[in-house]
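Researcher: We're teaching a course module on how sequence relates to structure. For the next exercise, students receive a sequence and then see the predicted structure as tokens, so they can try to spot secondary structure elements on their own. Here is the exercise chain.
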Amino acid sequence: MILLDSDVLIDVLRDHPSAVQWAASVEGIALPGYVIIELVAGCANKAELRDLQGEMRDYRVVWPSPHTCQMALTCFMEYHLSRGLGLLDTFVGHLALELGVPLHTFNEKHYQVIAGLKTVQPYQR
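Model: And here is the predicted structure for the students to work with:
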């Protein structure tokens, strides 16, 4: 399974050549449900929403278990104020830990405080 953060999916949606080429070359891409929520919230119009919905059809959507949500809450409470850890980043990072896969992202700094999380930059920007 290849778990994507929102920044990677945004590159694909914007037809960034290296992102599109990379996404077409791999199998097993999954999207955290929270990434989709984040991108829906960022849509400016129905055309952007339709593009997102069309892209989503190619990927599996995954959600964290209740136990993982509790772990994410504990981490968020510890690091939100002191290190600026974002709410959705916390859930996405802990989902990657639950699944035992690296998170494919360019926002590595967002995830530094999540112990044990591995991140991968999937292509050259």
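Model: If you want an answer key for the exercise: The chain has six helices and five strands. The chain has one domain: 2-120.
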